[in-house]
Automatic annotation (TrEMBL):
The lineage of its organism: Bacteria, Pseudomonadati, Pseudomonadota, Alphaproteobacteria, Sphingomonadales. Pfam families: PhoD. The keyword Transmembrane helix does not apply. Keywords: Signal. Residues 1-34 form the signal peptide. The keyword Signal applies. Residues 199-349 form the PhoD-like phosphatase metallophosphatase domain. This is Alkaline phosphatase family protein.
Length: 395
């Protein structure tokens, strides 16, 4: 978002509960009521151009970049960081000596305390708070990072395309993380990076499951869900997780050469053991993703996810994957909501390989290029192994 000379316009925009559901913008005093018929962007762009003249958006410290010719053998992944909570996990991750860290959503919690203002003040303050934590700054300066967002650093809990302030949220995100040009030039924050020479080439694809995602479906009042959760699957033809442009981009990316592909989805892909957010709520979109992944131009594949405030390793029998499709969920870094035993007991899942991790955690992927195998490990936030599985992608 380019800065422009401001005008004398200081109206305040707020979002009502009704507006949140419908995507409408409620205008406060000082705005012409006739303007409510305009598209949100037409209303908001001049407001944001003015706003940038009066505030300084937070910017993370510059960090090292992983060279494109680097041979990846160890990298880490994590999600769900309460910026006001204990940040000791950054040292736990560093103790594993990763070459790269994938920060895959809820990198801050920007919606608690949000007053409905279009300025997204609570989101900006969340980034400012994280930036003030020495543990984060030290890690950022030492370890290369790739980032993507989830709901709490996008806009609101379980939020999607309906969020009318998403372009400002995206600008805050891109400014803080100093997003590269290819991210800034598109709607949403999805992107891909490739590391290593032919024969040891890793492609990392980070999806945006927020910007174009259609509304989730609530059950009829009084419905008893078969498993824990909040929603019911949307089987309609209009259900959309990624949007047409991102789907086309993903299909092109999957045709690029790679020996190992790492697909990052901020929400879980494989599990059917709950009805919280996940790809299972849009079965047509999940089947489309399975088909796209199966049609990739070769290479092993593993899925990484977050969001759930539990961690685990999953394997599902999916057409096109002779040894099954593997996923590791790493969540949360510092917002655990159950012990490992409690989490495992409350969510039985035949696709999960081992315990459900309730402790604060992050994930690690190590690659054995000679054996064409990788190891997935969910680590406690202090760096101790909790559950681990070897995956052979040579077949």
């Amino acid at each position: 978002m380019t800065r422009h000379p401001g005008h004398d316009r200081r109206h305040f925009l707020s979002l009502s509960t009704t507006g949140l559901v419908s995507g409408a913008v409620a205008l406060g005093s000082g705005s012409a009521q006739a303007a409510t018929s305009l598209a949100p962007a037409a209303l908001l762009d001049p407001y944001y151009r003015d706003l940038e003249q009066t505030i300084a958006l937070p910017v993370a410290p510059p960090g090292p970049q992983l060279a494109a010719d680097s041979v990846l053998t160890r990298f880490s992944v994590g999600s769900c960081n309460n910026q006001e909570g204990d940040q000791a996990f950054w040292q736990g991750i560093r103790s594993r000596d990763p070459q790269l860290f994938l920060y895959i959503g809820d990198c801050v919690y920007g919606d608690p305390g949000w007053d409905g203002g279009a300025d997204l003040g609570s989101l900006r303050r969340a980034y400012e708070y994280l930036n003030g934590r020495a543990e984060f700054r030290d890690f950022r300066r030492a370890v290369p990072m790739l980032t993507v967002w989830d709901d709490h650093d996008f806009g609101f809990n379980d939020g999607g395309a309906v969020f009318p302030f998403k372009r400002w949220s995206e600008h805050i995100y891109e400014t803080f993380w100093n997003a590269p040009d290819d991210v800034r030039e598109r709607e949403g924050v999805y992107h891909a990076r490739t590391y290593g020479p032919p024969g040891r080439r890793v492609q990392i694809i980070l999806l945006d499951t927020r910007f174009q995602r259609s509304d989730l479906v609530l059950p009829p009042v009084g419905t008893k869900l078969p498993v824990r959760g909040r929603y019911v699957p949307d089987t309609s033809a209009g259900a959309s997780m990624l949007g047409a442009v991102q789907w086309a981009w993903l299909e092109r990316e999957l045709q690029k050469p790679a020996d190992l592909r790492v697909l990052v989805s901020s929400i879980q892909l494989l599990s059917d053991a709950h009805l919280w957010e996940g790809w299972e709520l849009m079965p047509g979109e999940r089947d489309r993703l399975y088909d796209a992944l199966a049609a990739r131009a070769g290479g092993g594949l593993v899925v990484l996810s977050g969001d759930r405030h539990v961690g685990g390793i999953y394997r599902k029998v999916v057409p096109g994957f002779a040894q099954g499709l593997w996923e590791m969920t790493a969540s949360s870094l510092n917002r655990p909501n159950a012990s490992n035993a409690e989490a495992t007991a409350r969510e039985p899942d035949p696709d999960r390989q081992g315990i459900c991790v309730g402790d604060g955690n992050f994930g690690e992927v190590t690659i054995d290029w000679e054996r064409r195998a990788l190891t997935l490990t969910v680590c406690r936030s202090d760096g101790v192994d909790l559950v681990s599985h070897a995956v052979d992608w040579s077949a």
